[in-house]
Each structure stands twice: as C-alpha cells, then as structure tokens.
Fold this sequence. Notes:
The complex is a heterodimer.
Chain A: E1 6-15, H1 19-30, E2 35-38, E3 55-56, H2 68-78, H3 85-104, E4 119-120, E5 130-131, H4 137-152, E6 155-157, E7 160-168, E8 171-179, E9 185-195, H5 216-223, E10 228-229, E11 234-241, H6 255-258, E12 262-264, H7 272-275, H8 285-297, E13 307-310, H9 316-322, H10 324-334, E14 343-352, E15 355-356, E16 370-372, H11 389-411, H12 419-434, H13 441-455, E17 459-460, H14 462-480, H15 492-516, E18 525-526, E19 539-546, E20 549-556, H16 562-568
Parallel strand pairs in A: 1-2, 1-9, 2-6, 9-16, 17-18
Antiparallel strand pairs in A: 3-5, 4-5, 7-8, 8-9, 10-15, 10-19, 11-14, 12-13, 13-14, 19-20
Chain B: E1 3-12, E2 15-24, H1 31-41, E3 61-64, E4 67-70, E5 85-88, E6 95-97, E7 100-101, H2 104-111, H3 128-138, H4 145-149, H5 151-154, H6 165-175, E8 182-183, H7 185-191, H8 202-206, H9 213-230, H10 232-241, E9 244-245
Parallel strand pairs in B: 1-5, 8-9
Antiparallel strand pairs in B: 1-2, 3-4, 3-5, 6-7
Helix pairs in contact in B: 3-6, 6-9, 7-9, 9-10
Amino acid sequence: MNEKFETHEHDVLIIGAGGAGLRAAIAALGQGASVAVVCKSLLGKAHTVMAEGGIAAAMANVDEADDWRTHFRDTIHGGKFLNNWRMAQIHAQESPERVRELEQWGALFDRTSSGDILQRAFGGHTFKRLCHVGDRTGLEMIRTLQDHGVQLGVDVYMECAITKLLTDGDRVSGAFGYWRETGRFVVFKAKSIVIATGGIGKAWRITSNSWEYTGDGMALAYDAGAELMDMEFVQFHPTGMVWPPGVQGILVTEAVRGEGGVLRNKNGERFMERYDPKNMELSTRDVVARAIYTEAREGRGTEHGGAYLDISHKPAEYVKRKLPSMYHQFRELADVDITAGPMEVGPTCHYMMGGIRVDAETAQASVPGLFAAGEAAAGLHGANRLGGNSLSDLLVFGRRAGLAAGEHAKRSGPVTIDAQQVVVGAKEMLEPFERADGDSPYQIHRDLEETMQNNVGIFRNEDDLKKGLAELARLNERVARMKVEGSRLFNPGWHLARDLKSMLTVSQAVALSALERKESRGAHSRIDFPKYDDFWAKQNNIITRDGNTMRLKQSPVAEMPVELKEIVGG
Amino acid sequence: MPDATFKILRGDRSGGELVEYQVPIAPGMVVLDALHYIQGHQAPDLAVRWNCKAGRCGSCSAEVNGRPRLTCKTRLDALPLSEPITVQPMRSFPIIKDLVTDVSWNYRVNKKIPPFTPRSNVEWKMDQSDVDRVQEFRKCIECFLCQNVCHVLRDHDKQEQFGGPRFFVRIAGLEMHPLDDVSRTQLLKAELGIGLCNITKCCTEVCPEDIHITDNAIIPLKERVVDDFYDPVRWFLRKLKGKRAV
Lengths: 570, 246
C-alpha cells in the first residue's frame, strides 16, 4: 500500500469533543502544549448537550450546610462503595472551583435571589447541589468550553473518526483514522493521547445515546493494551420517553423529579413508597429504574409499558420556565402538555459507569502516554452514578487529564510512527468494501441492540448473560464478513461498520463482567444473586486483552483512609 | 398503516437528483425516523447528519418540502402525505453529499468574535432578571437554519461581508452579559456587516428554539452600532467611561 497519508503532529491528541475532551484541551493548552481535538461530529454536538439537570458541586449557595464531605459521602453511597475513593474525594473537592471557572468563561447559570448560582435538588444528593440553566445545562457547558477552547487556539479536527491507536514500544505514539466527509485516511502523531469519547449506549435498543456512543475510546484503549474496569455497571436512566415509538428512549431529565415531579403507576399509586419511602422519587437512579421496570412487569404499567411522571401540579409558568426543553419535547414529539397532565416514562440505557482504568490524580491509563476522562474512564461513580456528577466529572477529570497529558508530552522524548500499524489500520477499513456479499452493518447493529436489550439489561441472570455472550460471538463472525455498499464519500453505512467492532468489544466486556459478578450492587442486578456479597463488595472486575482473547480478573477495591471512612459512615 | 413516499436529494458536488423511497409510517414518526429507515433498509450510504434526535443538538437541519426544518422535530402527521415529501440539503451551504452540507464557514465566522471578557475585580453576582435576556440567546443550538434562510447569505452570497443571524445572536449574548466589559460594535459594523440586515425576520421564523432573533438580538445591536458610530454625544460618553472597544 503506497497511499501517502495526511499526517498531523501535536503534543497532545484528544479524542472526543464533549465536556471532558474540551476541558482537557483547555488544560493542556495552558501547559503550552500544541493540542488537537478530534471528534466524530461537528464541534458542539457531542452528547454533553443532552445533559439537562445540572452540575453537582458543593457550593452551598442554597443549602449552607453543604460541603465537599457531604458530596463525597453521597457519591460513595450512590456508588455502593465500589468507587475509587480518591477520585470521589478529588471530584467533590474540586467541582465548585470548576463551576466558578465556567462562569468566568461566560457560562450563565440560573441565579438565587442574592445573585449567586442557583442549585437544585437531585436524586441521591443530600443537599440542593446542582448548578443549572433551566434544563439545558449541558448546552451551556459545551458552548462555553467550545468558545473558550477555540479562542485559546485548540486545533479541532471535526467529523474525523479514530479507528486505531498507534504505539511505539509500550507507549502511545499517535492514532489512525478517517475523515468522514471524504473517507480519506489521516494519521495523528502525538506524545500524549486523551480518550474522552463517552459511552456505549448505542449497543442497546432503548437508549438516550446518539449514534456516536459506540464505545470507541474504550475499545481503542483495550486494543492498545489498557485495562477496562467495572464494565458490568451500565446505568439505565429511570425516565426515558416510551411513546410514540420513534422517540422511545429519549431522555426525560431527572430535573422533573428534582422540581417536584411524582411517579405513579396505572392505578394512581405513588409506587416509590414501596421501594424507597424515605427518598421517594429522588432515590438513586438504579433504584428508580428498577421500580418502574418492576411496576410494568407486574402489570401496573401504563398503556405503553412505563410509569406516569407528573409535574402538572406545579404552576404552568414555573414548569415552562424550569423545564422548557421538556415542555417542548413532549408537546412537539408526543402531543402531551406536561403542564396539564402526566408524561409516560420508562428506563433507557444512559451511561457507562465502567471504562478505562485510570490513576486518580493524573487520569493516566495503564498504557504510558494514554489518558482517559469522563464517561470513557472508570472509577469515580462505582456501581451507580448520581445525577449531576457526570458534568462535574467531565470538568474535574477532563482538566486533570489535560494537565497530565501536557506534562507527559513535555517530559517524553520524540515518538515514531510505525508505518506497518498504519497499513494494517487502512487495510481493516477497506476490507468491507471488497466483499461481494455479507450482512449489512445496519442489520447486525439491530441484532446487537436486541441482544444487549434482552440479555444484558436492567435485570440479569446467568442464562441470559451466557446466551448474550454466545450471540455476541456469532455477531463477531458476521462482522468479519459484513459488506459495505457505496463509496468512501460521507458513507454512514461504512462508518457504522467500523463502530460495530468497538460496540462488540465493549459489549463483550460488559456481558463477561456481568456474568462474573455474582451479586446485585448498584446498576448491576442479578435475579439469581439478588443480595450484596461480601467478597464482591471489595472487588473491581478488570478486563484485559491477551492476544485475541478477552481476560477477566479481579482487583481489590483500594482501602479508604480512616478520616474518609468517618465521613462516609456505615 | 400506509407508506409515505419520500423524494430525497441524492448527490454530491458534481450534481444530484431526487430519488424516491417508500417508508412505512409509524405513530408519531418524524422525518429523521424515515431517513434512518431508508439508511437501514434501502440506501445504506445515504448521508445524513444527526445526533440527539431530540431537538437539542441542531445537527439534522434540512429543507423538508422546501421549508428549513430540524428533521428530528418534523412530524409526518403534520405533512400532507398524499404528495411525496421532498427532503433536500440546506441550500445556502455547499453540498458535500446528499443531505450533508459544508457548514465550516460558520465556524470561521465564530472565531472572529472577541470572547466574554469580565470587568476586572468583578463580584460574581447577577440578578436573574439580567440573566434572563441573555439566556434567550444562549439557547441557540447552532442548527444554522437562520443562516440558511437569511437572504443576505442565501440569495446574495455575502458570506465575506456578513456574519449572519446566528452570530448576531451570539454577540448579543456577549454584549448583554451583565459582567462583560468589551464592545463588539466595530466588528459588527465593519466585518460582520450588520447593516446589510434589513430585518425581514426570516431567521426568527425558522428558529426551532423560538429565539426572537430580529427583535431581541439584531435590532438592539443595530442600535448600539448607531449609538457608537453616528451619535456624537453618546460616542463621546462611551469613550469616556463605557466599554472598551476591541
């Protein structure tokens, strides 16, 4: 293959342009590094825009008693003690400063009567803690970071997909990918790489995630030798839309419940009384999702198999002001006026707590030069993430990853690109065009979504998980034979063909880890092992690559220092 | 349910034509659902941009039956299904392929705008009432439908002299930020050509976020430009104690 590849060289390459990637870019630029951000979509379209409810930060603007210790305790309790304690501590301590920084870069949050940033209640948070802008907080955040980063001089490579990390000995040296527009290949040479690619929601049929969330970063890191952790913990958000069919899975913000929305079954019962009478609708997401699912399974669901979520007891003007996106979303897509009647909602695949295993201080993965932040990284959220903790995660660990990546680039000597790895990357991308027949990537994707939805969902058991793994193996064989039609010019079928491979790798890691963890904890519910288990209480599942085989091992959860144990309590 | 007939522009820079597809209708279906169905079953290489599918990201802009729309919010039951539904790319931007256009010009314009610059030693307190009007502008999802319909761009191709409604909205958000300390009127007048806008309100009509682009952003900015450049008294006062010009 003699194709001359377009090559770009930077100190730091950031894959993903959501909150974590952009915050990392700003931090790395501050270190004097030359920084590239590569993203599959246009800049500003990443899934951070879909974050609605707010950024959790113990600023104590509304509830004066709040402080980082309480936020830390809430996060550990929400994560069922499986969190990396140091990440949870850093996160709770640094979030307020990261929010203030956003404001200084131009973000405009809703205000208290004394002119400070307003904070709202959310599930699992002891105090009113979520800094917000109505129900479009993520948009405000990404626009602020995007404009600030561009102003500081970040080089953005939009609509460009990375398909392979390149290595030089045991460290990363760059990445190989293609321009979505032209289909031409491109090589990035870099001393440090930050993975900020988000999650894997597109492997499930009912999901709040867009086409981009195909686990690319986790699969790229796994292929390059990095460890994945906690992959069994997939968050199903309790409230996605359920009707009409085309909108199934679209997120209904937790802010509806934060602002006083109540859940009822078809008999009019506030069923959360039976699942968590203390916290009711503001219980943690794992609990509320299971409750809605159980109500529907036991015949108390709504017409379309969900629950009713009602905020119409609040004044219509208040609802429109605090939840404008929800008001429009239901009015325009479902013909429902949420100021006058209830919404129908049900669980939707939303977030991956697991991901690339990283060092708490530096966000460095187990491969030198490779860093990860945000949803693509594991550790902060343990077995279940609290609402609002993802936006703060992006800011806190995006910044730390960017700082460490910039620092690493300064310290390390030049890297070289192995031309052979590039050739392999190109060959892999072109193969599906050369096959005369084979399945369409869309058909395989639909089958993958069904497999994960039916076998690796909210409630799991050994039979389903084994069945799921067997089906994933068959899907892998079909992917090896799939066929792509058309040219390389902006060809979504071709793009999906590559994304499918990442989805399959990550889905296998999820199913394998879920099969291994023989207990129920946080977002992982085993019907055959419904209780907490003492052994599993202190273990993280770790996934590694051994040639072409996926390996699973356990690693003990790091012991928390005594002073933090005292904060956390029982 | 019956099928709907779609006529979709298939083509690239070298030309294209409307191609017909039949799509089974489901309750509540939107145009983007139909495009996905066509990709998944009939035309796997149909180029479409989309992300959130909930009217929140502004990726899936196109012209449906000639009207600039977000395809994720355009319901089939709001369209006459006795006729084929035509879907074409935004006309003001160069086509890349099918429904995907080259919108990179917008990103170049955005780079010209001086960032939010807070006053020094400011106390970070703001009244909600002051924040409200700026939050309206911050709702923009950058779907670029306003840029697409603006006749200064669509019919007169003034891309080099004119910034377009999207960026007047962005500048309004900065200029009216209660703590901002920079004036962008020189940029508005000279480089972004706000004077070329003759307030026909086409942009406001297509905004999926219902931002009052003309009334709340463009007209007040035009007034600021007039104040700064054509009213000698206010020009002098502004020089003395007003915002820093850049």
